[in-house]
Amino acid sequence: MIEKGGYMLPFFIITNSKFFYCINMIVLEESASAQTINLIPRKFTSGDSYNVTIVNETTNTEVHNVDTTSITEQLYYNTYTAVFDLKEDVSYTLTIKEGSEVIHKDKIFCTNQADLTDYTINSGAYIANDTDNEFITF
């Protein structure tokens, strides 16, 4: 199941030893409106202050660093909603700390492609031309 808007995307990798593992990634858009991240932290206490940091993996610069109490507890997961200054086709690292203790760490990928089941890094970069040329090969 692949969905956009802060939902984790499972990617399964099968190795030669017949074992597989799952890599989860948060997918967000380059947008000026608020987006929601769904997460499952190692520990959580409602109302406590948490530091949410997002770092651009390419430039190693912080693009979001906020102390917040607005992480909301849902039934089986937590949500964090904010406006993020993200750029398309860039990977980020999300770190949430309570004091100096890291309680959640994740990866974020920013894309504006609507259909993530057919995601391609070359979207819009190559357009095939249709021709009526018929070639005869001897």
The N- to C-terminal Cα distance equals: 49 Å
CATH architecture verdict:
Sandwich
Q: For the largest beta sheet, what order do the strands appear in spatially?
A: 1-2-9-8-4-5
Major sheet attributes: 6 strands, mixed
Spell out the helices and strands N to C: EEEEEEEEE
Query: What proportion of the residues is helical, as a percent range?
Result: under 10%
Q: Any idea what the shape is?
A: elongated
Which ranges are low-confidence, i.e. pLDDT below 50, for 5 or more consecutive residues? Answer: 17-22
Verbal overview:
- The protein is an all-beta fold and 138 residues long.
- Helices cover 0% and strands 44% of the residues.
- The protein is elongated and about 75 Å long.
Structure described in brief:
The chain has 138 residues and is mainly beta. The protein has strands at 8-14, 20-28, 35-39, 50-56, 62-68, 72-73, 78-82, 90-98, 101-110.
Please outline the helices and strands:
Layout: E1 8-14, E2 20-28, E3 35-39, E4 50-56, E5 62-68, E6 72-73, E7 78-82, E8 90-98, E9 101-110
Parallel strand pairs: 2-9
Antiparallel strand pairs: 1-2, 3-7, 4-5, 4-8, 6-7, 8-9
